[in-house]
């Protein structure tokens, strides 16, 4: 039996996924969570074989959950099911040790088959997205990404500097580097483009 924990912030989607997977003879949905922190607690309590998670959730994102699992070398494998058909998200997911990346508009039977494949030690990645991921490399480094995300959320250079323990000049340098790498005119355009490509 494949023991699955679901992490999805939309109640209707979470319920539908749970009902769908519980129809399978060899899959048991042992728990569900509406946000990343709850999912992390449930993961430690239930010790499922697989975590099926969305990317965007309150608290921890699906990618941050995957990174934690990967860093702590937990035996649970991660499958992302999302609406984000963006190659940048897929690249970051793979770097975080994710074993499956499927889109929510894929046929329902594909999900159960993907979970079986991942449980057996394989990978299940949307094929079109996999092709795009290798032709659309993320030019930003981790610090540029962090600074750009905070700037895009409306924080000033001073606020970002305080939060990240950097000088304001260093923050401005990171923003300038990010803007230059993305070939845009200002931090807002840089943030929009990076979000659109899935690099943030």
From TrEMBL:
InterPro entries: CheY-like_superfamily, Sig_transdc_resp-reg_C-effctor, Sig_transdc_resp-reg_receiver, Tscrpt_reg_LuxR_C, WalR-like, WH-like_DNA-bd_sf. The modification 4-aspartylphosphate is found at residue 54. Residues 133-198 form the HTH luxR-type domain. PROSITE patterns: HTH_LUXR_2 (PS50043), RESPONSE_REGULATORY (PS50110). One of its GO terms (biological process) is regulation of DNA-templated transcription. GO terms for molecular function: DNA binding. Keywords: DNA-binding, Phosphoprotein. SUPFAM superfamilies: C-terminal effector domain of the bipartite response regulators, CheY-like. Pfam families: GerE, Response_reg. Residues 3-119 form the Response regulatory domain. This is Two component transcriptional regulator, LuxR family.
């Amino acid at each position: 039996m494949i023991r699955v924990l679901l992490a999805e912030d939309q109640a209707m989607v979470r319920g539908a996924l749970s009902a769908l997977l519980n129809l399978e003879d060899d899959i048991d949905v042992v728990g569900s969570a509406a946000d990343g922190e709850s999912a992390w607690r449930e993961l430690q309590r239930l010790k499922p074989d697989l975590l099926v998670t969305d990317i965007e959730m309150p608290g921890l994102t699906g990618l941050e959950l995957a990174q934690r699992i990967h860093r702590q070398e937990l035996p649970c494998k991660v499958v992302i099911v999302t609406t984000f058909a963006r190659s940048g998200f897929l690249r970051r997911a793979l770097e975080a040790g994710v074993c499956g990346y499927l889109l929510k508009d894929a046929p329902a039977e594909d999900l159960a088959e993907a979970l079986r494949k991942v449980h057996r030690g394989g990978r299940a990645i949307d094929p079109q997205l996999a092709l795009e991921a290798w032709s659309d490399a993320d030019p930003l480094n981790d610090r540029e990404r962090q600074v750009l995300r905070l700037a895009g959320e409306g924080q000033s250079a001073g606020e970002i500097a305080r939060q990240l323990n950097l000088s304001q000049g260093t923050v401005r340098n990171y923003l300038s580097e990010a803007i230059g790498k993305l070939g845009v005119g200002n931090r807002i355009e840089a943030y929009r483009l990076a979000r659109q490509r899935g690099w943030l």
